[in-house]
């Protein structure tokens, strides 16, 4: 089921033309259009967020929170006629109802909800959010299922690329490394299944023998599954997991696996730290660019209050926040429907700009903009997917599990 039809795409383009007069007057309203939740005072955009403060993705929580807060600070400092308030709630695990409870608590005051981090949690909360005509933008949902998911006519978007893109790049890396017999251990949920399918397709296209083994994401001990996965004596081992990765590594180590054949993904990059079992030689894939982000990531770390085990999806979350405000600014209102109708337009096809203040100035002048953010070119399509992505690769280089940038590549959706 295609979630954004031709009519809704035309409405988004039409909204840009309507917006010029509204923005010239800089008069944003909370409920200027029919449908959608209001955001309170004129010119005020209330953004809710659901991030994993607890659970298997909790290592990402401080990073995602810091990115939202930095974006809000930059938006408010621009004094562009719109102010952003944020309210951040816990996501918990995808096996609990924490995310749904958080979503319900945000709906009365928010026009946009950022998150959830996991694809499974977003699938659980999307019907409730979209029914209320509130926009949901995830910075880290990568399941291919979201491309065609029912979202009440376009209320779901994501700044992270589909697993079809990350999986294709990771599979190619493994083929280029010369691996011939690869096992994929994956968590049996939308995130794990999507990445498994994409990696497997690329490996098999490269002539690699592939075995797959799933595990329950809620399981406390998956050592039996890891040992079973090793029964084919693979020279390559792909782990698609969250913080279960520590247990995977411990079992691999006990079985004498050579970690130069270990490959991880965005969900477990950064899990293994100093003092943990060394996985020197392992390789990880992660959506998003590496080059040119030093200053931004330093700001994220400072905002989070010090060192972070991972900065994964900080650029995508920052961009999701900025795009929400730009869509409201262009549309001349801060309700969910207005934001939904303007998100694609501000992401592609106009004059390029790379920060909120510069983009807001162009909108004020009646210009069509193309926001290229911290995560790179975004260019939303009619399904709310990014059509271009940068995939970066990292190598573990010492016994303290220090990772160093290996390379990055640009990938486009087919």
- Characterize the largest beta sheet: strand count, sense, and whether it forms a barrel: 7 strands, mixed
Look at the structure and give the CATH class of the largest domain: Alpha Beta
| Share of residues in helices | 25-40%
User: Which residue ranges are poorly predicted, with pLDDT under 50 across at least 5 consecutive positions?
Assistant: 1-27, 30-36
The overall pLDDT average reads: 90
Q: What structural category characterises the helix and strand content? A: alpha/beta
* Sheet with most strands: strand arrangement: 7-6-8-9-10-14-15
Q: Summarize the helix and strand pattern as letters.
A: HEHEHEHEEHEHEHEHEEHHHEHEEEE
Helix run count: 12
| Shape category | globular
CATH architecture of the largest domain: 3-Layer(aba) Sandwich
Distance between the termini: 19 Å
Strand tally is: 15
Domains counted in the coordinates: how many?
Answer: 2
- Bin the strand percentage: 15-25%
CA gyration radius, whole angstroms = 21 Å
Name the CATH superfamily assignment of the largest domain. Response regulator
CATH fold group of the largest domain = Rossmann fold
């Amino acid at each position: 089921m295609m979630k954004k039809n031709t009519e809704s795409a035309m409405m988004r383009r039409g909204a840009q033309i309507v917006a010029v007069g509204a923005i010239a007057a800089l008069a944003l309203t909370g409920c200027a259009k029919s449908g959608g939740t209001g955001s309170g005072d004129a010119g005020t955009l209330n953004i809710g967020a659901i991030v994993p403060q607890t659970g298997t993705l909790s290592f990402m929580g401080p990073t995602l929170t810091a990115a939202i807060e930095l974006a809000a600070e930059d938006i408010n400092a621009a004094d562009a006629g719109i102010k952003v308030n944020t309210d951040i709630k816990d996501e918990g695990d995808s096996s609990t109802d924490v995310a749904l409870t958080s979503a319900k608590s945000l709906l009365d005051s928010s026009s946009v909800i950022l998150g959830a981090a996991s694809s499974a949690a977003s699938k659980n909360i999307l019907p409730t959010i979209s029914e209320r005509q509130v926009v949901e933008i995830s910075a880290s949902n990568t399941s291919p299922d979201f491309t065609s998911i029912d979202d009440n006519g376009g209320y779901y978007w994501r700044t992270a690329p589909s697993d079809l893109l990350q999986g294709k790049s990771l599979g190619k890396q493994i083929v280029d490394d010369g691996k011939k017999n690869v096992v994929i251990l994956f968590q049996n949920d939308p995130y794990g299944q999507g990445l498994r399918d994409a990696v497997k397709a690329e490996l098999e296209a490269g002539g690699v023998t592939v075995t797959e083994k799933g595990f329950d994401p809620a399981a406390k001990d998956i050592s039996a599954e890891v040992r079973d996965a090793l029964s084919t004596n693979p020279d390559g081992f792909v782990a698609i997991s969250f913080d279960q990765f520590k247990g995977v590594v411990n079992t691999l180590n006990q079985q004498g696996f050579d970690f130069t054949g270990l490959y991880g993904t965005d969900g477990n990059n950064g899990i293994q730290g100093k003092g943990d079992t060394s996985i020197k030689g392992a390789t990880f894939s992660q959506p998003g660019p590496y080059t040119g982000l030093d200053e931004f990531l330093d700001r994220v770390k400072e905002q989070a209050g010090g060192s972070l085990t991972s900065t994964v999806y900080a650029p995508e979350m920052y961009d999701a926040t900025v795009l929400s405000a730009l869509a409201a600014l262009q549309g001349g209102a801060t309700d969910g429907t207005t934001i939904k109708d303007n998100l694609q337009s501000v992401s592609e096809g106009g004059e390029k700009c790379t920060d909120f203040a510069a983009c807001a100035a162009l909108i004020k002048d009646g210009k069509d903009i193309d926001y290229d953010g911290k995560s790179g070119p975004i260019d939303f399509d009619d399904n709310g997917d990014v059509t271009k992505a940068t995939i970066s690769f990292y190598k573990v280089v010492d016994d303290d599990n220090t990772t160093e940038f290996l390379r990055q590549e640009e990938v486009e959706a087919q």
